[in-house]
Design goal:
Oligomer: single chain
Number of helices: 7
Strand content: 5-15%
Strand order of the largest sheet: 1-2-3
Shape: elongated
Number of strands: 3
Length: 139
């Protein structure tokens, strides 16, 4: 099977090769590559989210403690400081919500979310500063 470059005229091949050798292309490629420190940090964060998710599903006591901590933070700091989406904040009853770990659709990274109790599909993410606090305490 032939490579797609073999099917192009020689002047097009030269343009593509020159573009791939350009400093800008190399810099874009370097930005995509992650170093060992970045991978190690991501691995630790993913492990914390996995531990928290497992604990929330298997240990009701942990889930209640985290729920209590979120309620205390909402009382102390206000719902706008703890939850990200302001229009959806009104739908959350301060005392009746579920907690879970879900993937963010844009960044594809895990996050802690709260959702109203019942059959509601909308989930509201917790702000990153509080997420880190909860991960260090419960994860």
């Amino acid at each position: 099977m032939s490579h797609y470059l073999d099917l192009l005229p020689s002047n097009e091949k030269a343009k593509i090769r020159a573009k791939l050798r350009s400093p800008e292309a190399y810099e874009r490629l370097r930005e995509k590559v992650k170093g060992p420190e970045d991978l190690e940090r991501e691995l630790k964060v993913s492990e914390s989210y996995a531990n928290l998710s497992f604990s929330l599903k298997t240990e009701p006591k942990i889930k209640e403690e985290l729920k209590k901590q979120i309620q205390e933070d909402i009382d102390a700091n206000g719902i706008e400081e703890v939850l990200e989406q302001s229009e959806a904040q009104r739908k959350i009853d301060i005392f009746r919500f579920n907690i879970s770990v879900e993937e963010n659709p844009e960044s594809h990274q895990d996050q802690i979310v709260v959702s109203p109790e019942g059959n509601v599909g909308e989930k509201i993410p917790i702000k990153p500063s509080f997420t880190e606090k909860y991960l260090s305490s419960f994860g």
